[in-house]
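Hi both,

Apologies for the delay on this - the queue was longer than expected. I finally got the nicotinamide-adenine-dinucleotide-bound model through. Below you'll find the protein sequence and the ligand SMILES exactly as submitted, and right after that the C-alpha cells for the full complex including the ligand.
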Amino acid sequence: MADKVLAGKVALVTGSGAGNGQGSALKLASMGAKVVVNDIRVERAEETAQLIRNAGGEAIVTAGDATNPDDVAAVVRKAEEACGQIDILVNNVGFFGAVKFVDQTYEEWKKDLSINLDAMFLYTKAVLPGMIERKSGKIINISSDAGKTGYPELVSYSAGKHGVVGFTRALAAEMAEHRINVNAVCPGYIETAMHRNFLEGWAKATSSTFEEIEKEALASIPLGSFGKPEYVGNVVGFLASPDADWMTGQALNISGGLETH
Ligand SMILES: NC(=O)c1ccc[n+]([C@@H]2O[C@H](COP(=O)([O-])OP(=O)(O)OC[C@H]3O[C@@H](n4cnc5c(N)ncnc54)[C@H](O)[C@@H]3O)[C@@H](O)[C@H]2O)c1
C-alpha cells in the first residue's frame, strides 16, 4: 500500500466521463483517492466510476453542467455530503474547435470562454472555503499547449487557455498563505474524442483532408506520436501528490516536446 499516497483524500474531477478527465480520475483513484466523477452526461460518469471500482478504487458519480452555477453548487454539495470534504480539485472541463477568427460569432466566443474559464471559476470558488479552513488543498487546472502559444483557427481557445495559466499563477500567489497549491497542466494533442473533432474541424477550416491535417499535426510533435489521456493523468497525479507540496503557480507541459516554455 506504500504507493497509495492519496489514501484518505477526496478528488473531484470535472468532465471525467471521458478523455483527459477520465485519465486523471483513474490515476488519482489508483493512488488511493476517493474520486468524485463528474460529467454533463451521467452515463459517461458512471462508466468511469465503474472502471475505478473494477480496479479496486472508490468513486461516486455526479452529473452537472460545469458552466451552470446551480449545477456546480449541487455537485459540490453532493460530493461534500458523500465524502466530507474535497481535498483535490481537477478543473478539466474545456472545449476546443477549429474556426477562423473572421468566421467566429460572438456567441461562439462567449460559449468557448464560458467552458474554458467560467467552469474553472465556479468550481474553484465552491471548493476553496473548505480548503482555506483546513489550510490544505490542491487545485489542478487543465490548460493546453494553446495556453502558452497562440495557434491559428484557435483564437478563442488560446485566449481561454492562456487565461487558465494566468488564473493559476495569480490564484497560486493569493492562496500560498493558506497552503493551497494551484498548478496547471498544458497537454498537447492527446487522442480523445475532442481531439478527433478538432482535427476534422481544422481540415474543414483550411480546405484540407483529415489525413493531411493529421500528418501535419504529427510532424509538429518532436517525439512523433499523439499522447494518451493516461499521460495527462500521470502529471495530474504528481501535482496532487505530496511530492509536489513545494510547487505552486506552475504550468507543466505534457506534449511530446511540442511546447517547451
Ligand atoms: N485532447 C487534447 O488534445 C487536449 C489538448 C490540450 C488540452 N486539452 C484539454 O483537456 C480537457 C479535456 O479534453 P478531452 O480532449 O479529454 O475532451 P473529451 O471530449 O474527450 O472529454 C470531455 C468530457 O467532458 C464532458 N463535458 C463536456 N462539457 C461539459 C460540461 N459543461 N460540464 C461537465 N462535463 C462536460 C464531456 O461529456 C466529456 O465526457 C479540456 O480542458 C481540453 O481543452 C485537451
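Main takeaway for now: DSSP finds eight helices and seven strands in the chain.

I'll put the files on the shared drive as well.

H.
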